[in-house]
Every structure is written in C-alpha cells, then in structure tokens.
Amino acid sequence: DALTLPKDLLDFYGYSAQAIRDLIALAERLKRERYRGEELKGKVLALLFEKPSLRTRTTLEVAMLHLGGHAVYLDQKQVGIGEREPVRDIAKNLERFVEGIAARVYRHATVEALARHARIPVINALSDRAHPLQALADLLTLKEVFGGWEGLEVAWVGDGNNVLYSLLEAAPLVGLRVRVATPKGYEPDRALLERAHAYFTHDPKEAAFGAHVLYTDVWTSMGQEAEREKRLRDFRGFQVNGELLSLLHPEGIFLHCLPAHYGEETTEEAVHGARSRVFDQAENRLHTAKAVLLTLLS
Ligand code: CP
Ligand code: NVA
Questions:
Q1: 36-129 CATH pick, 3.50.50.60, 3.40.50.1980, 3.40.50.1370, 2.10.10.90
Q2: Is 257 an annotated catalytic residue?
Q3: Which of 108, 217, 266 to mutate to test the pocket of ligand 2 (most atoms within 8 A of CB)?
Q4: In a 3-state reduction of DSSP, which class is residue 185?
Q5: Which of 119, 144, 257, 278 is the most buried (most CB within 10 A)?
Q6: 36-129 against 134-282: fold identical
Q7: Is 0.95 topped by the overall pTM?
C-alpha cells in the first residue's frame, strides 16, 4: 500500500489532502511501533545545509538510521552552494552518489533548482518560503492532542514567515482554521492567506481569544540578523506569554517550532508551562521525517 507522492517535498503544492493524511497516518504508526526497519538499507541521504539546525538535521539523520540507511552532512563551508559551485552542478553530482537530498537554504529558488536538476527526491529542510517538515510534525501533534483537525482554530502570532507559510498551505487540506496576527509590514503573502481562508488581524489578543492553539516562532529568522533591532521594536506587544495564553480555549495549547529566543517572541514559562506541547512537537519531527523518507526514498 505504498503512497504515491510527487518526486520532491519542496512545499505542499502538488500534495493532495489524502497524501497529507496518509503521511500523518504513517507517522502515527511509526511512532506507536517505535519503528526500526531496513527499507532504506544501503540508501544515503545528503543533507545540504546552508544554515544551522538542531531538530531538522538530527531527526533526518536518525530517521535514516532507523530505516536502515545513512545520511551524509554537507555544510555550506564545504560545498559553497552558488559560490564554490553552481546549484545545477551540485544536483548533477549528488544524484550520482546518493538516493535523496534534504536541503536547508536561504532562497527557495535553490531547492527548486536542486529538484529540477536532480533526478532524485529533494526535500526542503527549510527555505525562506516554506518548512514543510515542520508543518507535518505540527499536524501530527494536533491530531494527537485533539484527535483531528477539522474546525480547530490555530492562532499564529508573530512574523509572517516560512513556518507560517507551510502551516497555511497545509491548513485547507485538513480543515484547520488559521487566524494570523502580525505587526504591520510583516504580513504573509495575501494569496496564501486567501487560499487558506485565514483570518488576518494586527491584534494578537484578537487572534488568541478562544483559539485551540497558539503558535509562534522567532521574530528574527536565520539570515535576518541585521534587522534584529528594528524587528524587536516592530514586534513589541506580540510576545506569547502567560497573559496571551490565558485567552485561549480552556483546552488550548502552545506550539513553537524552536529554537526560541526567550524574552522576545516567548517566555520560558510559556515553553515549559502546562499548555506547552512544544517538546512533543519537536519529537514528532522524527516520526514525520521517517514517514517522508520512507515514502519518497523507498
Ligand atoms: N524547528 C526546526 O526546524 O529546528 P532546527 O532549526 O533546529 O532544525
Ligand atoms: N523561522 C525560523 C525557523 C527556524 C526553524 C527561521 O527561518 O530561522
């Protein structure tokens, strides 16, 4: 009962609602069974990373190991994507060596070019436009907590960034309702908001009120460090703390993709408090990564 999916996972375009549901169902089974297998025996995944990572790198490496395969980590200092060597040439080399590429890049166009030029699957391990592996772990976490997605109200408070983009892409496929609150100037793409039928506001309290989920991410993403001072000013009032969390639905939970910048978008109390499911969410990166690798690399 192998699932058929597009060759690559760059974002969720081309992914059906059924494909997403099947991936999450597979991840649930792999988690329940603490699965170890040999399906990817002898297969190698290249991790081509322009930026640092804890969760994405570790879960992809461990997932490959649990499925009988192996991962090779290639950092930007060694490979020099677009500097030492053009993306096309990297793709046309790696496809001769390995069975898949997971790439963490600054520009989404880089993962698109890798996917276009390599005949092997390319997985987006975070770009400026999308973080699909994160959204899959988020969906699994919501399913575990609430039993399903239909009608859940998810409030995103903070930057209109890559993590939000993937959540917005996934939302209409599974029936999640997203409310987005960003400061002026940090709104996500309007077409994406419309496709997701998302509610938009500049008021974090309005977004949080009665929601089942409050989700945030750093105000300054990797690569935006030069804007940090300005962002600290612009995002004032958008911190997810005990006060904002108290507005949620009584069963409401807090999610954060991590890493957290404490004292900025959130507090230690929020991440380590009773409503937090942040570390289940992080664990689910492993199970969903396994589901993706098993499906795309088998
Ligand atoms: N959430 C996430 O992608 O974490 P890393 O940047 O540590 O991989
Ligand atoms: N928006 C953050 C997510 C990190 C997992 C970034 O791009 O740095």
A1: 3.40.50.1370
A2: yes
A3: 217
A4: coil
A5: 257
A6: yes
A7: yes
- Going from the C-alpha of 230 to that of each of 102, 106, 139, 226, 277, the distances in angstroms are 32, 21, 32, 9, 30
* 22, amino acid identity: D
Closest CA to 106 of 159, 160, 49: 49
ipTM over cut 0.90: yes
Calpha distance 237→183 (Å, rounded):
9
Buried b (16+ CB within 10 A) or exposed e, 91-121: beebbeebbbbbbbbbbbebbbbbbebbebb
Ligand 2, pocket residues at CB < 6 Å: 126, 161-163, 217-218, 221-222, 257
Contact status, residue 271 vs residue 215, Cβ threshold 8 Å = no
| Phi, psi angles (nearest 5°) of residue 287 | -70, -40
Residue 53 CA, closest ligand 2 atom number: 5
Tokens of 294: 């098993």
For residue 148, the SS3 value is coil
> Which of 3.40.190.10, 1.10.760.10, 3.40.50.1370, 3.30.1950.10 would CATH assign to domain 134-282?
3.40.50.1370
Q: Which residues contact 232 (CB under 8 A, 6 or more apart)?
A: 219, 264
pLDDT digits (tens, 9 = 90+) for 198-245: 999 999 999 999 999 999 999 999 999 999 999 999 999 999 999 999
pLDDT in tens, 40-75: 999 999 999 999 999 999 999 999 999 999 999 999
Please state the domain extents for the chain: 36-129, 134-282
